[in-house]
Write a structure and sequence with these properties.
3 helices; 40% helix
Amino acid sequence: MASKKSFPQFIISIFSNKCPRCREGKLYKHNNPYNFKNNMEMNKECTSCGQATEIEVGFYYGTGYVSYGLSVAFSVATFVAWKVLIGMTFSVDDDRMLYWMATNITLLIVVQPILMRLSRTLWLGWFVSYEEDWKSNPIEKPERVVEGQMNNW
């Protein structure tokens, strides 16, 4: 009797950029987000289950809002960490607020490729639900219309 695979967690699959349907296949062609020539190049479909990564034209326009939210959350986290670890006052003589802002801007620039990928993976995960038995339920692919031909008209 084959052992049933344990249920992979949603958060782990998001951070590892896995398909939201099967949580096994890779979404991106290259694992390195700092490969700037190809860092956002996605597979047309999941390498394991065949789930399309671009559901419709312009599907990923909403990821700008997700990326903005992640950037704000990152900035709040760095602010809290800075305040707890280093301390901060809002007096005129204290430059620690300026140092935090410079550090935060630098960190945001460095982390931006990861946030962009994460926002795409989250966006796709909100519209494609996990299917535990995805091997038994393959995705039916629509017929492609070849230019100049009409299908069953």
